[in-house]
Amino acid sequence: MILLISDLHLAEERPDITLAFLDLLYSRAHRIKVLYILGDLFEVWINDDGMTTFQHLICAVLRKLSNSGALVFIMHGNRDFLIGKTFCKAAGATLLQDPTVVQFYGEPVLLMHGDSLCTRDIAYMKMRCILRNPITLYILRHLPLCARHKLASKLRNASRAKTKANNIVDVTPEEVPLVMQHFGVRTMVHGHTHRPAIHELQIGDQVAWRIVLGSWDQHGWALQVDEHSFTLSSFNFVRPLLRQTSYHI
Q: Where does Mn(2+) 2 bind (predicted)?
């Protein structure tokens, strides 16, 4: 089984989400062959050298899954883009570039975090460009820990304080087919927008799908892929699956 998740925003202040994540892994560990985490596994990440006890715990959980034989892949999100090789090595995970094309049972699938598709959010796109610049990344990684904590808190507070129109924070519709055509795929999976759904669209003469993973807040979300279908499911933090939708390939 291939499992894809994103936008857990794990933090000590939300033990319910952490317990749901652990339950998901432990309940399906024997069936998970590949786990993809498409960004924002953590609410904040100030670099591998600043890992907290809580983050070490999550690292150990992923290592246990990896040691069981599962392949674990992690992609940067807008909250944890400073996750580096040290964490991935300790977790037994591979860091994925954003975007990346993978093969699911012979079907090429484009995986993304999704923030790069939100091109109408001009202010965010400018900030993203600055923060992902190699020079900026180098400076951030070499700031004192206390300075990184303050900067992370400032960015989080600024993000929470801003209210933007729905069409601004969602993907730009015209961007989706352009990106999919560029990579030669008819299936895209991403997170970031916190608007879980399976969207059917037309690219040229082909039917295509954009699958949006959900944010873990009131309940969790996971996309399960097997040789027959993609199934997007939501589940309560204390009860089994609530609902699911799927399409067949």
A: 40, 78, 113, 192
Domain count, the chain: 1
9 is in an annotated binding site: yes
DSSP β-bridge partners for residue 223: 4, 232
pTM exceeds 0.85 for this model: yes
Backbone angles phi, psi at 173, to 5 degrees: -55, -40
Domain that holds residue 143: 2-248
Q: Which two tokens stand for residue 126?
A: 């400018």
Mean of the per-residue pLDDT values of the chain = 90
Find the CATH number of the domain harbouring 118: 3.60.21.10
Q: Residues 16-58: pLDDT tens digits?
A: 999 999 999 988 878 899 999 999 999 999 999 999 999 999 9
Q: Tell whether residue 121 is among the known ligand binding residues.
A: yes
Determine whether the annotation assigns residue 30 to a binding site. no
User: Known binder of ligand: residue 85?
Assistant: no
199 carries a ligand binding annotation? no
Is 7 marked as binding a ligand?
A: yes
113 annotated to a ligand binding site = yes
Contact 120, 172 (CB under 8 A): yes
